[in-house]
Give the backbone structure.
Amino acid sequence: MSTFEITPDLLRRVAGLKTVTPVMKGLAEHLPPVLEKYNIDSLLRLAHFLAQIGHESDHFKTLREYASGAAYEGRKDLGNVRTGDGKRYRGRGAIQLTGRANYRKFGALIGVDLEGNPLLAEEPVHSAMLAGAYWNDRKLNQFADKDDIRTITKRINGGYNGLEARKAMLARAKVQLASQARKQVAELEEEIKDSDTGIA
């Protein structure tokens, strides 16, 4: 179980924004069980995870790709084999799941018919589940443990798009999570001190 508290304000600070967005509120509510399920529980794992989904969701501002998805039309590598698949299966969720094949695969992994109901991928609860399932499927914890943002970015993005922005978000995530950890240590030390004074 993660010792870190996921709050809208934490996500705001990771994103580097001045105000909390609806996406931050939705993800903060639904991420904790996902993080526990996929063992995204250390400072490095959580920092990398938040940095990646933060970038993919445009600083936690959207769970739907801004582009129409027309560029994905006919992309057989994404499983888009029917007319209209590009737009129908555009990027959605915190991880920006794209393409009919991915909607089918990851929908099955989280137990939701995303191929038949692609808009469900935009709902915070499913978005959080998809991000965790995708992270786990790509075996990214092992690279987070090595602080390897390049490999993580390549496995999520297919290239290195926005690498510098991802690095900046990662740095902010590390600072915020380290701050949480320091506060927890201080509280524990205070508890120990209080218990010691009660010893006869």
